[in-house]
Amino acid sequence: MKGNPPTPQPSGGKKRELFNPAVSTLIANRIQFHVRPCPRTTLALVPPGEGEVHIWHALTDVHELDLDPTGILSPDERERMERFRFGTDSRNFLFGRSMLRMLLASYLGTSPAELRFAYSAHGKPSLSVPADNLQFNLSHSHGAVLYAFSRGTRIGVDVEYIRHDLNVEEIATRFFSPAEQIEIARSPDKYDAFFHCWTRKEAFVKARGEGLSCPLDSFDVSVSPDGDEVSLTTRPDSLEAQGWHLRSLNSFPGYAAAVAVESEPSRGSRF
Fold first, then answer.
1. Domain residue ranges in the chain
2. Which CATH architecture has domain 163-262?
3. Which is more confidently placed, 270 or 131?
4. For labelling alongside 135, which of 3, 127, 203, 269 has CA 20 to 30 A away?
């Protein structure tokens, strides 16, 4: 599938590049989902427009990127990185936050080090400097990292490595809705179904920005790994689901991933 051709625009001496070449472009409910591997350096990118979602993905072990944390990360981010006990966790944090800054700087035409973040009461980050309505979210698991960006619409993304050493039916009984528990129990691959269900629910909760205050059993998602479309049922108001769109992302073999985005720009409403 083809994206838009690059359009030269002045931005700090660089050409501002449209989201191209995209690995895939999915269109659903008037929303275009563009999926692309992470860059290896700062670019000059056109931010997502209305009705567009940009998704970037990378595997940290194979994505070659020379990062200097003292030149990209903020002091509090460097402090968080140094608190990790294991080198792998520290490197993954460095890559995740540095790439986030690189992508945001590429969209906004600024330096990665100049970005400042604010955090909601539930820990969801947003831009404070520069002020902009570019919405974003990120997720990482077992060396895989995903980023999602939208314009003015709340967005959430989640990726999880599919593990086979968990009692997924017991976890589903504790956290998932009865309908989801039945679907997982009937699935030919319970682990695959469980993690696809988990990432879809996590993406939705992260998009809402409400953290654990939103019970995972208060809404239903489809659990089948087949297809990109994800159904959503909300309670007690079934009409709330019409304001959101969920999709599966198949960026990494052996992982489950999903993105949730508002259908229209947020006007401050909350479920």
1. 10-153, 163-262
2. Alpha-Beta Complex (3.90)
3. 131
4. 3
* Encoded amino acid at 38, one letter: C
Reply yes or no on whether the pLDDT at 68 is more than 80.
no
Position 70, amino acid: T
The pLDDT assigned to 181 comes to 97
pLDDT classification of 62: cutoffs 50, 70, 90: confident
Same topology for domains 10-153 and 163-262, yes or no? yes
- The residue among 38, 36, 34, 37 whose CA lies nearest residue 52 is 34
Pairing of strands 155-161, 116-119: unpaired
pLDDT higher at 271 or 121: 121
- The mean pLDDT value for 172-181 works out to 97
For residues 120 and 3, the model is more confident at 120
The fraction of the chain above a pLDDT of 70, given in percent, is 86
Cβ distance 57 to 146 under 8 Å? Answer: yes
**What is the rounded distance in angstroms from the CA atom of residue 15 to the CA atom of residue 247?**
31
